[in-house]
Structure formats: structure tokens, C-alpha cells
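Translate sequence into C-alpha cells.
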Amino acid sequence: MRFAGIAFGLTVLAATSAGAVENFPSQGVTVVSGKCSKLMVGKLDASKGCKAEVASVTGPDGSVTFIFTSGGKMLGFQGNGKSIKPGNEKGTAQLPIDVISTGAGSKISGQVEAKGTCTFANPYAGKPVAIQCSAKSTEMSFNGNFTSDGKAPQHK
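Result follows.
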């Protein structure tokens, strides 16, 4: 699978049941700019090299993946976009996570079943919003925290 034209694409419902997250995540690959404050894989802290962007990938099968990158490696939190539901705070939504993808460069090299959630809001509403993902597999936990800069999307 390739990262730039990501094959595990996603066709998420543009206006999810969460209502407040209109047009996000959108079909294809969208890059959200901002600041990554935390990226953990088990006990490995990759926060220091975490890029100032998160990719949102929506595939034809309805899957949604939030991809964090650090030091040339990527960590993807993937779930079924049709399962997105309203979050606990007004204007947020939650994506149940069932797969963690890992890779280097533009190639996905591994996937592991995991359970967790990504909580997010529309990052293009003109104000910073958080994208927070956490999941656990049978062997380790995965965490990514990101705050958008509120600017218009960059489509790749």
C-alpha cells in the first residue's frame, strides 16, 4: 500500500452522525497542519520527532485512518467511518479504532488488531481543535495527540 495515494482509502460520510464534523474526514487523503504533542508506541516516546501534520485517509470501503508520522515512520489509527458517533463534548466526534497500522516511508508494513478511539472535531472551522487517538492491542498501547492550526485543508 502506498501512503500518498493511499490504497486503503476511505469514503466517510461527509456529514457524519456527529453533525459537528461536517466534511471531515473527507474522501481521499487530507493533511491537517498543526502541532503533534504526543506520539507513543508502547514505551517508545516518538513525540519529539512527531511531524506538524496528521493525515486523514478515507477509503472506498468506508474505513478512516488518522496517520501520525515521526522520524520517517508512521502510525495509523484505523476504524470504520460508518461507526463515527458524537463525542462527549459538543462539536466532537469519535471514531472507534479496530486496527493499528505501522510503516516506514510511504509503505504500510504491519497491522495489528487494537481497540480504542480517536476523538476529533472539524479542524477547518477556523480555530484549533484536538485530534486524540488511543488504542491497545494485546501487547501494547498506542497514543497520538495533535492540535490543528484551524487552517484550510491541504489535499494530497
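Note: The chain has one domain: 28-149.
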